[in-house]
Design goal:
Elements lengths: L1 H6 L1 H21 L4 H15 L3 H5 L4 H24 L6 H30 L5 H6 L1 H30 L4 H22 L7
Length: 195
C-alpha cells in the first residue's frame, strides 16, 4: 500500500487530496479566517484536478488540471451557495448570491466544455464519441446541466420579481445538480473514446 501511495501518480494524487481535505476540515472546525478556508478549498479543487482523466493527460497536463480545478471550484461555489443559503435571506443577500452565480455558472459551464473537449479530442468522429459509454454519459450530463441552468434562470427571474426565489425551484435546482454530480462520478471512471 505504501508503495502505491508513494510511487504512483494515482497514489500521490489521493494522498495529497486526503492531506488537503484534513487541513481544510481543521480550518473549518477551528473557524479559521475565511481567506484561509478559501485557500484550502482552492487547494482541494486543484488536488482533485490531479486525479482521474486529468492525471492521465500527458499532452497538456497543466491545462487540463487547471480546467478541472476551475470547474470544481465553480461548481462548489455555485451549488454550495444554494446549499448554504437560509430561506430567510433578505432581498439584498439574495441579490448578492445571484450576482455571484451569474458569473460562476457560465465559468463552470465553460470550464466543463473545455475539459470535455480535451477528453474527446482523440476520437475519430462524433459517431465514435456518441457510441461510447463516455459519450452517452457526457450527453446525459450536458442535458442535466441544461435543466439546472433553466432552473437557475427561472430562480433569477423570480428573484427580480419578488426579491427571493421559490423554495420549490431552489430544491429542484439542487436535486438536478445532485443528479449531475452522480453522472459525473460515473463519468470520471469511464474511459473516453479513443483510449
Amino acid at each position: 500500500v505504501v508503495v502505491v501511495l508513494r510511487e504512483t501518480t494515482w497514489g500521490r494524487g489521493w494522498t495529497s487530496l486526503a492531506f488537503i481535505a484534513v487541513l481544510g476540515g481543521l480550518c473549518a472546525v477551528a473557524r479559521a479566517p475565511v481567506s484561509l478556508r478559501a485557500i484550502s478549498a482552492c487547494a482541494l479543487a486543484m488536488a482533485m484536478g490531479g486525479l482521474g482523466h486529468a492525471a492521465a493527460d500527458s499532452a497538456m497536463p497543466a491545462t487540463v488540471r487547471a480546467l478541472d480545478a476551475a470547474h470544481v471550484i465553480g461548481m462548489g461555489v455555485w451549488i454550495g451557495m444554494l446549499l448554504c443559503v437560509p430561506p430567510s435571506f433578505s432581498e439584498r443577500e439574495w441579490s448578492r448570491v445571484s450576482a455571484v452565480a451569474t458569473v460562476v455558472a457560465p465559468a463552470t459551464v465553460l470550464t466543463g466544455i473545455g475539459s470535455a473537449l480535451r477528453r474527446v479530442w482523440d476520437a475519430s468522429s462524433i459517431t465514435q464519441i456518441l457510441a461510447s459509454d463516455y459519450g452517452k454519459l457526457l450527453l446525459l450530463k450536458v442535458a442535466l446541466v441544461a435543466v439546472v441552468l433553466v432552473f437557475a434562470m427561472m430562480n433569477r427571474k423570480q428573484l427580480r420579481a419578488n426579491g427571493a426565489p421559490t423554495a420549490t425551484r431552489l430544491r429542484a435546482e439542487l436535486l438536478i445538480a445532485l443528479a449531475v454530480f452522480a453522472v459525473t462520478a460515473v463519468l470520471t471512471g469511464t474511459a473516453p473514446p479513443g483510449e
